[in-house]
């Protein structure tokens, strides 16, 4: 009987997956989706590659836990079938849990700060937010969510019982009650301002959430009173902000649909500087290695399947 050929070395990167590029600290290994597998590549050697294989269709999203112990990956599937989520042990390079609950597509994933829980949202054919127990691989609780406000999800950075979803024209803060197995939503108040949310990031102290919009600006929302504070930069980023990341200095990196990567001050939301890459920027991951000059490094992935290293 013929055996499948094992992967040796691959050239490529799936730039269509939002947040599909991850960096294993201390900045030694890149993790990214390529077809049905996840590639682990040492950043200084293109030939030093390992592969996590287990999905039956294209990987649609990735999320790495804060301590780098776990990697969660979701996939797309055919209409009418469930899409798998896989939790991997990164150090052992092995599959721990396979979970199937979402229909057709897993849209986004997020680990809690201590990696005890994993949140997942399904695509437009699913409409569910689910919180999983990472140790057991079982669903703890879930909630139906309209498609217009569950396109991306993030846990808070300092507590495991709160998370945020964004999509459409809404940002929703959820309180996760483990004992009662409930998710309680509270919608952020934007007044008369309307924006279509594409991406979000939460600051390290859980004071504010920043959402990148289709209009090309960033919305700052206070997580305490759950109200809109202000937006910027004044000169909008064309084709929307597809991905946001926090820098080692606490500021923001905004990746635009026009290929622009902008450094934005968190307090004022003013653009400090920017550079242009080829393709729409769907992934940004900062290397937390501030240099003596005050600069820092980050990696970016684009829809034309290019990977960039930027200082």
Automatic annotation (TrEMBL):
Compartment(s) where it occurs, according to its Swiss-Prot or TrEMBL record: Cell projection, Cilium, Flagellum; Cytoplasm
GO cellular component: axoneme; motile cilium
Residues spanning the signal sequence: none
Family membership: Belongs to the CFAP52 family.
Domain of life, source organism: Eukaryota
Predominant location category: other
Assigned keywords, A-Z: Cell projection, Cilium, Cytoplasm, Flagellum, Repeat, WD repeat
InterPro entries given in the database record: Beta-prop_EML_1st, WD40/YVTN_repeat-like_dom_sf, WD40_repeat_dom_sf, WD40_rpt, WD_repeat_EMAP
Pfam family, one: Beta-prop_EML
Gene3D superfamilies: YVTN repeat-like/Quinoprotein amine dehydrogenase (2.130.10.10)
UniProt domain EML-like first beta-propeller: residue ranges: 49-303
Protein name per its UniProtKB record: Cilia- and flagella-associated protein 52
